[in-house]
Queue: 2 jobs
Job 1
Amino acid sequence: MKLTVVGLGPGAGEDLTGRARQAIEAAELVVGYTAYIALIRNQFPDKEMVSTGMRREVDRCRLALEEAAKGKNVAVVCSGDSGVYGMAGLIYELAREYPPMDIEVVPGITAACGGAAVLGAPLTHDFAVISLSDLMTPWEKIEKRLACAAQADFVLCLYNPRSHNRPDYLRRACDIILRYKPETTVCGFVRNIGRAGEEAVTLTLGELRDREDVDMFTTVFIGNEQTVLLDGKMVTPRGYLQRP
Amino acid sequence: MKLTVVGLGPGAGEDLTGRARQAIEAAELVVGYTAYIALIRNQFPDKEMVSTGMRREVDRCRLALEEAAKGKNVAVVCSGDSGVYGMAGLIYELAREYPPMDIEVVPGITAACGGAAVLGAPLTHDFAVISLSDLMTPWEKIEKRLACAAQADFVLCLYNPRSHNRPDYLRRACDIILRYKPETTVCGFVRNIGRAGEEAVTLTLGELRDREDVDMFTTVFIGNEQTVLLDGKMVTPRGYLQRP
């Protein structure tokens, strides 16, 4: 009775860790969201896999726990990290309804780190990660987090920045941040990190506000006071060159 | 002329990604802080490696850039991620003094994700990462970030929480956080993530304040309003079970 929650990294390709690969190889059944199973299907051709659709997180985790309770070695796969907006928390919550079993959480490269590497080095100093999805978080709480993080000059990393149902959320978020950070703040975004069609853009906070091409597959980075563009790369100096 | 900044993950062991391993294998010279070179020395026995001591970050990066400018394929290795408090930013800053070269940043599992996986699932919701080291950041700025992040109910992840020279920093940080979060807030810390002697502790914010056994090799997690202990694991429910 073993259940492993595995973070695949942004694209489940070369950024997969050795431990994640071993966990999938050792599993008798792999469970995940359709799009994530598609990312690993070809790499593990003989593996039994079950995929379920969007917003079926609870069903998916229950299925995994049920199969593990029957004695199977089961892996639940998540894009990016298994914890950061991933399934590890839900698995621990639901596990209390099942017989005791061995649960292991295997971390993966989250989009904050994966996207930062594509843009340059925006996260070399204190940063805050905020999801703009209000499916499970009141928008007022998200607004407060945006305001507080901007006020304290964190680098911000935004997950789920914009979708068809929420076309104006990125603009609303930028308007809050613009109360505390100047329009010229260096920003960037990366779409399809580590996947086909990966694309990185650097721009100012004023420009970011009006971008229509940011979607659910995009991670957004908003610099702090020190963040600069160096030969097209978004870089937040940590201060080594200024150290006394 | 190729320089790769490689994140090794917390312990440079099974949490090393495929891309990081390939980058080290492809490098003709590997440069890093003594303790990080020690972590990978045995895994790449025939590789030319140069290690330099603590606080020699600028020298280390210059050495790597000089060797790359001579035509070598050089890898600079960092513990955890290459960006998060890593060397990627400094490399981009210094690279402008050298001939143009191909620079690649390879992300790694940062201690926030690696430590969270050991504790359970504390980072499943919005979080802020703050270093308590004031070597390069004024303490007033750190205080403001602690206060703002606590006020907005972020989960907090603290790097460099305490050292010989700064024995009271964790206490000072907790006192600021205690203005906004109750003493009973669920917290945890992990020492030596992914390395020999890995140790995880869960406790309350009130208890964390007075811990003397938190050191520079420890990463600290402070929960949000929802964070709970479930069978000894620190878990921040994201809200799937409460979703309408």
Job 2
Amino acid sequence: MREELIRLRNEMEKAGVSLYIACDCDDHLSEYVDDYYKSMKFVSGFTGGDGTLVVTMDEAALWTDGRYFIQAAIELKDSGIELMKMGEPDCPDMYEWISEKLPKSSAIGFDGRCIPANMTERIEGKIPGISFISADLVGRIWDDRPAKTQNPVMVLKDWQTGRTVSEKLKDIRDELSKRGADSTVISACDDIAWTLNMRGSDIAYNPVFASFLIIDTETATLFITGEHLTGEAMDHLAEAGVRVENDTEKVYEAAGRLSGRVLVEKEMTSYEMLNCIRAEKVFGLGAAARLKNFKNATEMDNIRKAQIEDSIAVTRYMYFFKHELLMGNVLTECTAAARLHELRTERTGFNGESFPTISAYGENAAMCHYEPDESRDVVVEERGLYLCDSGGHYDCGTTDITRTWACGPLTDEERKAYTLVAIGNLRLAAAVFPRGTAAITLDYAARKPLWDNGMNFNHGTGHGVGYILNVHERPAGIRYRSTAYDCFNVMDEGVYVSDEPGYYAEGKFGIRLENMLLCVNNGGMCGFETVTFVPFDSECIDVSLMSDEDIRLYNEYHSAVYEKIVPHLCGAEREWLKEATAPIARF
Amino acid sequence: MREELIRLRNEMEKAGVSLYIACDCDDHLSEYVDDYYKSMKFVSGFTGGDGTLVVTMDEAALWTDGRYFIQAAIELKDSGIELMKMGEPDCPDMYEWISEKLPKSSAIGFDGRCIPANMTERIEGKIPGISFISADLVGRIWDDRPAKTQNPVMVLKDWQTGRTVSEKLKDIRDELSKRGADSTVISACDDIAWTLNMRGSDIAYNPVFASFLIIDTETATLFITGEHLTGEAMDHLAEAGVRVENDTEKVYEAAGRLSGRVLVEKEMTSYEMLNCIRAEKVFGLGAAARLKNFKNATEMDNIRKAQIEDSIAVTRYMYFFKHELLMGNVLTECTAAARLHELRTERTGFNGESFPTISAYGENAAMCHYEPDESRDVVVEERGLYLCDSGGHYDCGTTDITRTWACGPLTDEERKAYTLVAIGNLRLAAAVFPRGTAAITLDYAARKPLWDNGMNFNHGTGHGVGYILNVHERPAGIRYRSTAYDCFNVMDEGVYVSDEPGYYAEGKFGIRLENMLLCVNNGGMCGFETVTFVPFDSECIDVSLMSDEDIRLYNEYHSAVYEKIVPHLCGAEREWLKEATAPIARF
């Protein structure tokens, strides 16, 4: 059993807490968090990006989703913590479990600034009258806890934003009025960065800065520790009439002073923040989040440019990888990923990866969010499939792309799965639909080829991507299960969403093919513009599984890849691309 | 301008109301209502099944959806009431309109027992601090108002229900506990009928009885006026421990006395009922509604039988119709519908239509909920399309079916639209998907053939159907726009839903093809079992628009129709069915 679990239980006893909840949450409920906030990881040893640890005096369990089942099973072995596989039929509901395990008339503990308000509400739903003790018990046992990161904030240029801060504040106030609210408290760092046309680097991979923003009908106040702001940033904020409060602690008092009606996004507000707001609340997706979901014309144009840069890097990487194998050179998951990083570094405006590169050979690719590890690096063999999921931040946008390709001979199972995934990817990209279509309606286009064969994959088909921002952006998403965001998750011009069906055979292989799509409205109906231009691997395709229309879509895409990318290549790369994008046909 | 509008404004002035809302709602928020409750119809003259009338001192507007645009435009002509076409891009949001038109610090009036609580809440969201005056002003000007209907209640047999009232009450209490509630107030008459295994006839087409039901952890109380209950019904209720309160007025006091947490379905609870409940509320789909959405094995078996009976009647009707035309006999919308009624009357266990039959020739079929009218009956000509949407209540289930067929030569536009609608119908029925798939994900299967051609239709692709109950049953539905029910509208064994894509060309023709589907779980994945067996019209099909798979699905369905129905036909009908279901092929 883990030492940290024993020490946490000691603190629980002292604090009078019978059950403690730890998640890797910060006070902004960010997806990626500064190491300072990784309490779940500290206690459990599980390093996956998403999970919730619940500890009682004699049991402990960790809930995580399909992306992390395999990784979590390995990391939680002998920890004294049971793995709960969310979405599996026999997985107990976390809230049910809590209500069953909690001794009568005892209290639940957690760090109230770092837990989503809707989580504590669901607990209250299950256990009416439950009392909560908000205390950072993990902090008390965390001797070498890392310091909080604070880096300077950067101001975007006009050519990057397409809309000034003053204009965005007006848009947000209009949205608040439409929703019957007078003000809003924004905890989500990406919403703040978008609103203020500024970016930071406080969190790995997410170009945001730790802060809070309160907007009412007259004023806008940014709560941020003083060391973040350069003179340029101060001038920029002053020009838009945004006041600066140099102590983030003060946001809780300020939220408490709001009157009228306050728009609150429960999913992105902490227990403590929600309790601070005493005024009447209107619940729903944040106003800035709703607006930034539809990229403006400047953002769309820049995204197209960023995608060309990124597609050149990844296409060259595919050539490099295939060529090394052909030459008989040794490639490992880590050395390959390092080469991809170099190729991105050569591109105009590249500022860093948008998330940790997944470079996974063979069975490792079946772990959806696998990260290669230098200490146990894996050599690529001349058979089976290699999967690479990566993305970049550019001066003109954020990218996300996954390709899977053959390293040598494939099994029939691999070829069939690859072909069905490719068909799903292309059919979703080709969908035509009216404005306002619920995004989850479109998931069928991507999954039908797999479902018809009794196959499926355990993650969303698509997620929103930010503009020079987080690689996962709410509310956009293409999936087949309903969520709280459904009514805001509608398709219209400017939605920027990934198209990434996959298939995972545990212990054998993993396949995912991901392009980024921009929703465009061509007069009457909407459709998608695919903005990623990197070949699929025709060596993996079983043409007999494709309809004529599938073959047409496949060849059309490859022809576009060739046209867009070949001008940026030279010599052998050009020749290879011509071959790699040559039309396929039924025999 | 309508006289009724002028008189209503007089009453508004007396009552101190600046804006009055009238909808054809009863105190159970039923879809079909007793004539007593049709205030919107009384004031506006619009006879469509769904609409909301808003009247100010100098303006009046009526919101209705795509099914009724054409009908409403005709009926509202010169009424002084503006038609608001919901879903059209330029249609003002009703709540926006109300907040714009309402004079400062004035009151909104309505009959609080006959208005959905979520409607008044949305108004409060738009106009914080608004005051409401609950008063039935329409009642004050309605001199010859019809009396309320009260018919005796019938008890279902065990072979019909598959589950006793005691078992259902236990299931409901389990569901309440899962949702964190101790009790529930049920206003929805179909939920009450299902729970108590009883049926009534107080409302046209819906076999329910006007009543309320309160269930807590220990007791269940039915509020119903005494004249409804036969001795058999009293014994049946006593056996299950259900108490009877013979004064429906008392339900409001009883709701007010509830303590603990009360599950309330806001969409099916009136403003006044919601305000009566002083205990803490848990909002969401009603517990009985959630359970009855998944038909049990007995219900599914009976539904299959009811569907065979109904399919025989409609198949024979199609033969009759085509034969009459061939013989050169005169057919009208009304005489044809009368023949269909006769054919249903001959079937075992038929108890009446489940909604008014839509029998529509030519351009009339473009009005989705058109009803033929004897006073201006329409003769069927020997060209174009005829559409018939109808359904029956049987001792063993409720049906709903639409067929469209050729009366003579068709235009290319008609043939193309018919073929695309047929393809959509068959593809949805053939869908394969995991348990728990959001129903709206599947809508893409039905709409893709139309969307790919820049076409669409302005109603849901599917709605839930009750078992010996209402032909429209929540929460099931297949559509591409998000609603409040999405998180409960998931697919699993026993969901009974219609599959009815269509296409409507205003002033020209209308097409709809509707089969009923039962969701079945064949081991790993779910799929649909089509339970309606009536031919499509191969004369309307343009095979060149179909894929090989579409042709296979079409022929497979026709072969099943022949097999199931031919044993019940004789002579010329048999010959005709053989021809009508003969395989189609590409030339």
